[in-house]
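Format notes (please read before filing issues)

Several people have asked whether sequences and structure tokens are stored in separate files. They are not. Every record keeps both together, in the order shown below: the sequence lines, then the token lines. Line labels are part of the format and must not be stripped during preprocessing.
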Amino acid sequence: MNKFEDLFYEFKGKAKDMYGAASKATSEAVDYGKIRYAIKQTEWEIEKTYAKLGEVVYGTKKGATGLEDAIDLAVAEVDLLQEKLAELEARLRAYKNVDKCSACGKENDTDASFCSSCGAKLEKPEATEE
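Then the structure lines:
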């Protein structure tokens, strides 16, 4: 090969690497945005369910009967939505490379040993062997 071909293949390799890195960064940004949107949507669903629950409780106080099943269903729905929200927030923290303090809820860098807000020792998840 001549010098021109060497330069061409070197440039082609670098361009391919840059494209791969840009593609990965774009994909991660899209995923991050989707997670944030899903969090907002789940929070909105929780608020709507609380509103439904409030209407049922109000009806009970006004003399309506037989609404215990509706209350149980609304409470179960809120519980499920809160579990979903916790999972989405954990995924978002993984993208941001932060952990949540179990004592105060403040986000800290994953390599921190103590909370920057309250000073509590941060629990580290145990590494699992694959």
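For reference, the curators noted about this record: The chain has two domains: 3-96, 98-130. Residues 98-130 form one domain.
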